[in-house]
Structure formats: structure tokens, C-alpha cells
Amino acid sequence: MAQLRIFSYLPNPRVWKATIAARFCGVDVEVRGASGKELRDWLWDYDARALGEGERQSLSGLARTGRVGLTGAQLFKTDAFLEAQPFGNVPAAFGPEGQIGIFESNSIMRAVARLGEATYPLYGRDAYEASRIDSFLDVSLVFARDSQIYLLALSDGTVDAAIHARARNAFAIYAAGLEQALSPRREVLTGDGLSLADICFAAELALFMNEHARAAQLRDRGLDKILHAGIEDEYPLVFAHFARLVAHEHFRPDLKPYVDKLSSKAAA
Fold first, then answer.
1. Alpha-carbon span 82 to 103, nearest angstrom
2. Quick count: other Cβ atoms within 10 Å of Cβ 65?
3. How many Å apart are CA 136 and CA 3, to the nearest integer?
4. By C-alpha distance, which of 250, 260, 258 is closest to 21?
5. I want to staple 95 with a disulfide (CB 3.0 to 4.6 A). Which of 100, 148, 189, 242 is the partner?
């Protein structure tokens, strides 16, 4: 039995925070899920699965209205799922047997690090290092919030100048802080080795690269890409660090195919 089970739409870089951490720490993580559209026909539960023919009607009592990302969709969530996951969102993680629910990708990633701390200290070696890492993770949440609003607006065609400006400013603040953290010729964000701070950064930037797939929507509204052609010159240490991480053996299985695909869209 896996030490942690995660249910989510896939592919999802925020899930990969946990799977990357698991490779460092030797933790057994199981991931279940499908594309966002396909999750409409899944049972949302610890034992999440695709619904069979005719089950939608027989399980109509479990139907709930989707919100973020699946707004208005009819989703089938068990009472046990909502007890473990009170906000009802994915990614949703569970301890063995599904009795304990863990939500929010940074918290799921932290759980993996705690489970495998004896193998690799991704969460630091003492309270001070852990709190320093938490500082980077908390800052990432501010960026992630505006990033999510922006990417969803690009996806559903509702992006406007105000949403774009908030995302652009959020990225600039986040990237500038990371550039400063790396500026003393550092190859990790904090401490002496790779940590949860680096994993979170790589996953969030990979997710933000979905902007490349929506360049046409931006052009139609007279807006420029935030990850424009010269962005690497503005934050050279940040993007050099990102490239190192994508090539790393524990990051590469998840991130490289995803990043390569989006980079090809940017080049096109």
C-alpha cells in the first residue's frame, strides 16, 4: 500500500511537487486521475475511479457543483471525500486507508518530505532551516494565486488587461526575490542542498509556462506574454536554476516532457 495517494487532474505540475520529493526521499506515492474534462466522469473518493456506464444516475445523490477549474460541472464526490477534503478540490492526498486527507500542493509536498526525512532532508535539518524553506513556500502561494487566475482566464477566454497586469506584477515580484536569493553564486535557493523551496519553484514556473500555449488569446486582446522572449535576460539566475532542475534526475521524469512541449509552443 502506498504511503500517500494523490487524486488530481493530470498532467498537473503541482502534483509533481510530491512525486519529485518522493524520489529524493524514497517515499511510495500513488497518483490517480485523468484530464480535467474526464474527471467529470470520475468518483471523487480515496478510491477514486472512472465511473461505469449508468453509474451517473445511480450515484446522483453524490452530485456536487464544481467550482475552481471545473466551474458549474456536475461532479460526483463521496461524503468521505468531503470529510477528508473539506474544500473539495484537487490535488487531494490521503494517508493509508484514506482516513486522513491532506490538501494544497505545498502541504502534500511537505507530507512527503516528513515521511522521508531520514533519507533526504528536503525540509531542512532544524527549525530554522525549515522556517526559511517555509518562507519561500509561503511567497510562492501569492504568485500561485494570481498565476491560477491568469491561466484559467486564458483557458476560458476571459483574460483581460487587469488580470494580465496582476499576473505580470506577481511574477515580477516572485522572480526578483528568487534572483536575489540566488545572486551570491548559489545553485540552490536556501541551505546547502536542494529543498522543498527548489521543488516548489520548478513546479510553479513549469505550470506558468502554459501561457505559451495561449499566445493567440493574448494577441487578440493586445497583450504581450509575461514569459516573453527576453525574460531570461531579466532573470538569468532564475532561469538557469530552472534549467538545472528540469535536467536533474529526480525532476526530469515529470518536468522535462512537459516543459519541452510548452517550450516548443513558445518557439513556434
1. 11
2. 11
3. 26
4. 250
5. 100
pLDDT of 7-39, one tens digit each? 999 999 999 999 999 999 999 999 999 998 999
Question: For the residues 226-255, what does the mean pLDDT come to?
Answer: 98
Domain boundary pick from 82, 115, 148: 115
- Number of domains within the chain: 2
**Gap between the Cα atoms of 139 and 159, Å rounded:** 24
User: Structural domain of residue 153, as residue ranges?
Assistant: 127-267
100 with 138, same domain: the answer is: no
Reply yes or no on whether the pLDDT at 192 is more than 80: yes
Give dist(CA 216, CA 224) in Å, integer. 10
Q: For the sheet containing 49-50, what is the strand order?
A: 49-50, 42-44, 74-77, 63-65
What is the CA angle 215-219-225, rounded to 5?
50
